[in-house]
Amino acid sequence: MAKLSPRDIKRKIQGIKNTQRITKAMKAVSAAKLNKARAMLNATRPYSERLYDLINDLAMFVDRDIHPLLKVREERKIDYVVITADRGLAGAFNSYVIKRTLSDVQKFQEEGKEVNLLLIGRKAVQFFKNKGFNIIEEYEDIYRDHMNLAFTSKVGGILAERYENEKTDAVYLINNELITTATYETKVRKLFPIEPELSYDKLSELSRYNIEPSAEDVLEELLKRYINFQLYRALVESSTAEHAARMIAMDNATRNAGEAIKRWTIIFNKARQEAITTELIDIINAANAIE
Amino acid sequence: MYQLEVVTPKGIVFQGEVEQTVINTSDGEIGILENHMLLLTNVVPGKLRIERPDEEPIEFAVTYGTIDVRGDRVIVLVEEAFEIGEINVEQEKKILEEATSKLEQKETLSLEEIENFEKMRDRAETLLELAGVKVR
């Protein structure tokens, strides 16, 4: 490697400082987005509590062996809803989900099961493209404007239709979730078939209700709300974990840049002194030669 | 007067004492005053109007959900509740276009798919109408 001049090293240090400015800014942006995402996650609690209560109460009115969304089947065809971010620079965030998906798919295929993927997030779409997987649908750029029930009810409808018409026997969601401020985990959760927790003590309360048009109809709609909500919740969870992951990654990058700046500054000082020494030697030699 | 809660996945959109709640259900529009019979029924896209004495009524555009009418409390659980000005007209137009074009290929769709796209279309049409955009 050619010896770098002090000027070259200075330019290098400036480059690293510029990078550090960017990673610092990205950390701050991620921190703000993390706060917003956490607030969104907390905001889902009242809805989910009331929804689950209603479903668990009504589930007793319906024969689980008959209802298409509750009926359990042997799992020969499996759908995975793979949820990643649209962007990288978030450490191992996207690769955790992708790797877990790959290993689960391989395990299912070894068991002779058919696996289909529904992809949400550009990183998932880019990875699984053209690799021979059965892809149901692909969605990119959801997190900016489409993290809402209009989107998740569209996807929920697609998945419910697949389950009802036996194009799939089970649907799982795979996404990252924030565990603590500094750690997140990849979770796989079953979406279909739905498994309500029956609450037998509520039976007498419900018998006083008028349920229109019928308990089955109301439960049917509630189950659809449940599916759409689970998808929404998974997107918000993933988004929250994504911002935390990016914050950590940018924080590490900022620190690494700082260390690199220190190391290169030492090298710069050495190089500068060497240059001065060399120049002095030249001057002295020239002076001696003249004498 | 009774306690009304309007709850969506984005949070509790309204909570307070009201005189009457007017909402669209699968059986048509209903108005709920205090001491209404116990009722559990489906909410369909339309306007939700909340009336309180000596105050202007509050209106929301709501989509699909369930209404739980208890003796002293009414809970409206809906996927979306927009203040009229909040409706994203551009987005809803796109959704309407998507649903309509999918429904044009009815022959290739299963019954459930048709039902889904019809619901998607109804939702978008209702929201656009409530936002003041002529669609049908």
CATH class of the largest domain in chain B: Mainly Beta
Poorly predicted regions of chain B are none
Helix/strand class of chain A: alpha/beta
Rg of chain A to the nearest angstrom?
29 Å
Q: State the CATH class of the largest domain in chain A.
A: Alpha Beta
Taken together, the total number of domains of chain B comes to: 2
Percent helix of chain A, as a range, is 55-70%
Describe this protein's structure.
The complex is a heterodimer of chains A (291) and B (136). With 291 residues, chain A is α/β, with parallel strands linked by helices. In chain A, 61% of the residues lie in helices and 15% in strands. Chain A has 8 helices and 6 strands. The longest helix of chain A is centred in the C-terminal third of the chain and has 76 residues, at 215-290. The relative contact order of chain A is 0.18. The model of chain A has no long low-confidence stretch (mean pLDDT 93). With 136 residues, chain B is an alpha+beta fold. The A-B interface holds A 40, 43-44, 46-48, 50-51, 54, 58, 145, 148-150, 153-154, 157-158, 160-161, 164-165, 208-213, 217-218, 221-222, 224-225, 228-229, 232-233 and B 7-12, 25-27, 37-42, 63-66, 68, 75, 77, 79-80, 91, 95, 110, 112-113, 116, 119-120, 123.
